What does this fold into?
Amino acid sequence: QNSEKNQLFHPEVFVSYKKIKKNIISAGIDYRYMQFTRTAVAEYNQFAWGAFLQNETDLDQITIYSAVRLDNTENNEPVLSPKLTILYSPFSKIRIRAGVSRGYHAPTIQELYEEGYGHSGRAYRFGNPDLEAEYSFNSNLSIEYVPTSNLQVFAYAYKSNITNMITPVYSGIWAENPDTSTVIDKWVRTNVHKAEIWGMELAVRYKPLEKLKIEIGYNYSDNQNSSTGTPLPYYPGQSLFAKVNYGIKISNKISATSFVSLRSVKDRAAWNWKPASGESFDNSNGLITELADYQMLNAGIKVVINSKTEFYLKASNLLSQNIEKLDDALMVIVGEPVYSYGLILNF
It folds into this structure.
């Protein structure tokens, strides 16, 4: 539909050190090279590299995870993102986890360089090479209750506050429009808004047999533009999910684990950045478009040989459900199964 092509090269390496009493130190580096092109975006590339350092300290009833990550993205200043998580087990059957962290999002190639991308109507979207990065402050809290060795009840809640949010803003008429017979309105990505995202998840995990695990749960997420009180461009809605894992021992050296999972997603919506029908052409309150519900059925199997060689096969979307997305225009991912397979070697 829009002749889009993405290329990504992303090597990474990490190491863990466990020789210090009650501590596990981990560190790693990675490099990312991205190349992107599509209608109204010339071919651009972007590189970035990052590094992290983490320490896990076990103090009997309390475990402390502290970490910091450094990101250096092309044309952006290096950014440090710290993270702290504390796991507290006041009783053998209860675990409480709380965490805070800083998030970072560097502008993508299309956010920087897109030019005159649109669909039916006079509203066209543009990138902005002067964009600054988005930042967020994140907090989360979870409680796990384990009444028996084969039953676990899990509750999780989170919230993120985002600053410098990148949002298309009306910026007048596109004077350089190559088709001068039509009037084109420029909507330019700009760092203008603050945002809040919050959500929760409830889950029950049950192990009726040594080789059988069952999980069911519910997920809900919501958000708003703190500057305007309106929803963000994408509203993820809510979902119900279930998953069954079953493991078998084929021989002393060969074992296998299989799974089947089902997720039912509903109440999604997206913000269509062009003005709603009947609104003024410079009205920034885009049309809210409801996206169709869907059910995602996946299944897979992994075979392990001598604990060192793993073969896996996964099938996604076995119900062949169409999935709607909205990125400038309403798009549909055709409902058909997708298969992935691979080999993992452990040295």
